[in-house]
Amino acid sequence: MLTKRVKSRIIGDHKKHDKDTGSAEVQVAVTSRQIDELAAHLKKNPKDNHSRRGLLKMVSKRRKLLGYLKKHELSSYEKLIKKLELKK
Q1: Per the confidence metrics, is the pTM higher than 0.85?
Q2: How far is residue 7's CA from residue 39's CA, in Å, rounded to a whole number?
Q3: Where are the domains of the chain?
Q4: Residue in 55, 57, 31 with CA at minimum distance from that of residue 43
Q5: What value does the mean pLDDT take over residues 35-47?
Q6: Are 2 and 33 spatial neighbours (Cβ–Cβ below 8 Å)?
Q7: b or e along 55-77 (b: 16 or more beta carbons within 10 Å of the residue's beta carbon)?
Q8: How far apart are the first and last CA of the chain?
Q9: What is the model's pLDDT at position 8?
Q10: HSE, side-chain direction, 13 A CA sphere, residue 43
Q11: Is 32 buried (19+), middle (13-18) or exposed (0-12) by CB count in 10 A?
């Protein structure tokens, strides 16, 4: 679970304008951080199948958001992929 401070820092790094909290770039960045934390949890707790299901749902959500970005805003998609160090 992300703390409020960490989440606001991520939003600040990826926002398009001052009041932006829900753009696809912000959502991908926040979801990516949650995925990283949950993956670390699952390495310590390999039998936690409920969390594994949540991880798979988050990965699917991120993939859908990245597909939207790639289709509608290719330049911001490429910047985000490079900044978050994700595979294409």
Answers
A1: yes
A2: 18
A3: 22-84
A4: 55
A5: 97
A6: yes
A7: beebeeebeebbeebeeeeeebb
A8: 26
A9: 94
A10: 6
A11: buried
The two structure tokens encoding residue 22: 């829900």
Chain segment 16-34, per-residue pLDDT in tens = 999 998 999 999 999 999 9
Is pLDDT of 69 > 90? yes
User: Would you say 2 and 26 are in contact if contact means Cβ atoms under 8 Å apart?
Assistant: no
| CATH class entry, domain 22-84 | mainly alpha
Is residue 38 a contact partner of residue 58, using CB atoms and an 8 Å limit?
Answer: yes
Structure tokens at 76: 């911001």
Residue with tokens 């289709």: 71
**pLDDT bracket for residue 88 (50, 70, 90):** confident
Contact 62, 31 (CB under 8 A): yes
Percent of the chain with pLDDT over 70: 100
